[in-house]
Amino acid sequence: MNPSLDREHLARCAPKLAQLSQQVLFDDIWKRPELSPRDRSLLTLGVLAALGHTQQIPWHLQFAQQNGLHEEEIIEAFTHLAFYAGWPAAVSALGCVEEEKRECR
């Protein structure tokens, strides 16, 4: 798996994209009151997994846990996703959870 670009790397490599991500996505969209940060994290992980964007999942796993999601809930979401987005998408996403656990040991 290719490493994802964290905020610092993105800022060095594509400063304008980093600025827009921060201002529009994280300072506006993520703070809208209609959905909680927890719900937004669950939705984001599901979409990333469904679209096969596993490179972005590790960062969002950590962010989701900061937003109150527990590992068991994330695993259940990816299991549920298998029936709507396909087995490969779900298994690839679950692989990110396992990889994240190994890195934290």
TrEMBL record:
<dbReference type="InterPro" id="IPR029032">
    <property type="entry name" value="AhpD-like"/>
</dbReference>
<protein>
    <submittedName>
        <fullName>Carboxymuconolactone decarboxylase family protein</fullName>
    </submittedName>
</protein>
<dbReference type="Pfam" id="PF02627">
    <property type="entry name" value="CMD"/>
</dbReference>
<feature type="domain" description="Carboxymuconolactone decarboxylase-like">
    <location>
        <begin position="15"/>
        <end position="99"/>
    </location>
</feature>
<dbReference type="GO" id="GO:0051920">
    <property type="term" value="F:peroxiredoxin activity"/>
</dbReference>
<dbReference type="InterPro" id="IPR003779">
    <property type="entry name" value="CMD-like"/>
</dbReference>
<dbReference type="InterPro" id="IPR052512">
    <property type="entry name" value="4CMD/NDH-1_regulator"/>
</dbReference>
